[in-house]
Amino acid sequence: MPTRNLILILGDQLSPGLASIVTADPKRDRILMAEIREEATYVKHHKKKIAFLFAAMRHFAGNLVEAGWQVDYVQLDEKENTHSFSGEVERAIRRHKPQGLVVTEPGEWRLRTAMESWSKDLGLPVDILDDDRFLCAREAFADWAEGRKQLRMEYFYREMRRKTGLLMDGDAPEGGKWNFDAENRKPAKADLFMPRPARFDPDDITAEVLDLVGNHFADHFGDLAPFWFAVTAEQAAAALDHFVEKALPFFGDYQDAMLKDERFLYHSVLSIYINAGLLDPLAVCRRIETEYRKGRVPLNAAEGFIRQIIGWREYVRGIYWLKMPDYVEANFFDAQRPLPDFYWTAETEMACLKAAVTQTREEAYAHHIQRLMVTGNFAMLAGVDPRQVHEWYLMVYADAYEWVELPNTLGMSQFADGGLLGSKPYAASGNYINKMSDYCADCRYDVKQKTGDDACPFNPLYWDFLIRNEDRLRGNPRLAQVYRTWQRMSDDKKTDYLKSAERILSNLS
Ligand code: FAD
Ligand code: DLZ
Ligand code: SF4
């Protein structure tokens, strides 16, 4: 039977319920999946991220074939592979002569824009379907944002709670409050029981991918082994079960904590699977709610977790599509410094940064507070070009796709959008890191020292950042108290701070 439609499925669309799959017919339509060098190298992704995606794609394609679909799967080392999506679609069109091409909308602006010209370039109808794995369609987010002076996540989140009915008690939020974050700021102690994420041994398919990635992407950042990510929906479901049982009850309490020997703490390490489509975000949230309703996890844990997904995750996607393509250029502080080398080498005497970068290299994972308050905070304080910061985050984390990474990096962590996502920059001195972690005890620098060669670099950089950007930040009411503190300092102290910062910054370059 001639092919009716060609269905292109991307590496982060590995969901059987994907719009372009559920509207297709296995007898008449043909699926195309392709390992594309251009996707792996337009930024040089971490080796583990490429291996995860290729392994998950190969398993997903295998399951589709078992379920009766006709699938063209183009491997990276296939001789004719053109290494671009348009090239592979064109080849598949020549092979099968379909009447049309169907895709579910991609997560990145660059790809969406490219696809919009495919119909003209390839000479056949191209249907781009909405990605209904997200709760809030792009247009619905734009409607919500219309006319609002501030796009606060908290208000958006309440709408998502109402829309989904998650943790609702009639029209009111369960427990009488929308947000239990006030209970979620505990520093962790190293003697607590620490769960670890579920680990999976590579099977033959994954082992083959690991060889391939090792051979083709040897110069990319990151360690390939040990590789323990889930690569199928079944394994990802087991990882969710494991998280729910071992870590979820404490997820809220220790959400902001950092420990040098505990890379995952009570975090779920599920973003990798959710973003690639191996887990459905709403189903994950319903599962978490059930655990709460059955009395197995406290409300602050369940609410905190659900907020990250139906709140933050949906919200950053909305911001991305609302603000692209200009968003990627945002640079509120006009920061120009190149990204320091130690973001790649981990060669720094700052224990917190060394730990965060080492872990990133080994795991392609760091939890939120490491990303925000260690690597992100340092880059912002030091005045690093936000575009370089963005590219680093997009490369090094296995869960990174531009729609989610860019607003988190440029907006939340670098304040490069001037305050669309946050009401003030997440700038902090060493005191915050010391309070929330055990890094400082083993650091060559002294977190209590404010200036001088042995002072924690975050301390002088914090003040230097505020003074360097005073004209941009002084009017911010949330920073009024901080600027008053600066004004009350003696001139000598101020000079010490600025001179210490100058020394640190000149050593960075
Ligand atoms: P948990 O702490 O267990 O949280 C549960 C889930 O909530 C996550 O799996 C994720 O799906 C969702 N979530 C939590 N916070 C956010 C958030 N701020 N935005 C979107 N979803 C969220 N997340 C990504 O998925 N991809 C990225 O590329 C990414 N880049 C980031 C860059 C920076 C600078 C910062 C500060 C944050 C970034 N985040 C990103 C958000 C967050 O750090 C990760 O989602 C989280 O660390 C993933 O680990 P986890 O699954 O253990 O999360
Ligand atoms: C991230 C990524 C990589 C590294 N490789 C591929 C690939 O070879 N084939 C593919 O279909 N998708 C890949 N992806 C995911 C895409 O980059 C992703 O679909 C877009 O960035 C849209 O989010
Ligand atoms: Fe980081 Fe400063 Fe603590 Fe060292 S002293 S670990 S640099 S916060």
Q: Secondary-structure blueprint of this entry?
A:
Blueprint: E1 5-8, H1 19-22, E2 30-34, H2 37-41, H3 47-66, E3 70-74, H4 85-96, E4 100-104, H5 109-116, H6 118-122, E5 126-129, H7 138-145, H8 153-164, E6 168-169, E7 172-173, H9 204-216, H10 233-246, H11 248-251, H12 271-276, H13 281-293, H14 299-323, H15 342-345, H16 351-363, H17 368-382, H18 386-396, H19 402-413, H20 430-436, H21 458-468, H22 470-473, H23 480-488, H24 491-508
Parallel strand pairs: 1-2, 1-4, 2-3, 4-5
Antiparallel strand pairs: 6-7
Helix pairs in contact: 3-9, 8-14, 13-14, 14-19, 16-17, 17-21, 18-19, 21-24
Bound molecules: flavin-adenine dinucleotide (FAD), ligand DLZ and iron/sulfur cluster.
The site of ligand DLZ has 16 residues, from helix 2 and helix 3.
Protein traits:
509 residues, Rossmann fold, binds ligand DLZ, binds iron/sulfur cluster, single chain, globular, 3 domains, 7 strands, DNA Cyclobutane Dipyrimidine Photolyase, subunit A, domain 3, binds flavin-adenine dinucleotide, mainly alpha
Folded structure, characterized:
The chain has 509 residues and is mainly alpha-helical. It folds into three domains: 5-129, HUPs (Rossmann fold); 138-195 and 247-323, Serine Threonine Protein Phosphatase 5, Tetratricopeptide repeat (Alpha Horseshoe), CATH 1.25.40; 342-508, DNA Cyclobutane Dipyrimidine Photolyase, subunit A, domain 3 (Orthogonal Bundle), CATH 1.10.579. 50% of the residues lie in helices and 5% in strands. It is built from 24 helices and seven strands. It has helices at residues 19-22, 37-41, 47-66, 85-96, 109-116, 118-122, 138-145, 153-164, 204-216, 233-246, 248-251, 271-276, 281-293, 299-323, 342-345, 351-363, 368-382, 386-396, 402-413, 430-436, 458-468, 470-473, 480-488, 491-508; strands spanning 5-8, 30-34, 70-74, 100-104, 126-129, 168-169, 172-173. It has a five-stranded parallel beta sheet with strand order 3-2-1-4-5, with helices on both faces. It has a two-stranded antiparallel ribbon with strand order 6-7. A hairpin with a 2-residue loop joins strand 6 (168-169) and strand 7 (172-173). Helix 13 packs antiparallel against helix 14 (299-323), helix 16 (351-363) packs across helix 17 (368-382) and helix 17 packs across helix 21. The chain is globular, with a radius of gyration of 24 Å. The chain binds flavin-adenine dinucleotide, ligand DLZ and iron/sulfur cluster. Flavin-adenine dinucleotide is lined by residues 267-271, 274-275, 305, 308-309, 312-313, 316, 367-368, 371-372, 376, 393, 397, 399-400, 404-405, 408-409, 412-413. Iron/sulfur cluster binds at residues 350-352, 430, 433-434, 439-440, 443, 445, 447, 456-458.
